[in-house]
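Reviewer 2 asked us to include a model.

Predict the structure of this chain.
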Amino acid sequence: MSALLLALMLGAILPSETRDIGPLADLRLLDQYGREDSLRAHRGQVVLVTVVHAKRLRKLQSWEKALRERLEGVHYMRVADVPADPPVTQEDVAEKLRQRVPEEVSILIDLERRWALSLDLDTDQPNLLIFDRRGRLVSSYRGGRDRFLEAYVSRDLDRLLEVEAP
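Predicted model (structure tokens):
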């Protein structure tokens, strides 16, 4: 199977298809400690944004561990997609995250599901969105960590880190 076909099957946006994500770049969300973050705040950096259903955040841990061990210089944003049913408040979600997530791990809480809805993401599995230093979405993957998907994500991040060194 060709690499291109495999990438398409995995849901990748090929690097030649970079796109601006408009208002999402400026979308400011709060994490479980009330700290604000946005993609715009990471301008000038290669950023991996992970978006997943709040109840499936645990699936991000193996992704991040594998990528952090090999790739220096990547900025990470983790977004918890919080469906409206059952209704919860920012503080409800924040309290659970503070109890279950290490203090140094910031999880942005998206109660209005703006990331998922704007990009038509199915958040039952992690969505890994790779942004270049200009804030453009250059590739997108969905799924749990496996060696094939990890190879594509790593390759894309490596290329951006090498080509776009500050």
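Residues 1-16 have pLDDT under 50 and may be disordered. Strands lie at 29-30, 36-37, 46-53, 74-81, 108-110, 127-131, 137-142. We have added this to the supplementary material.
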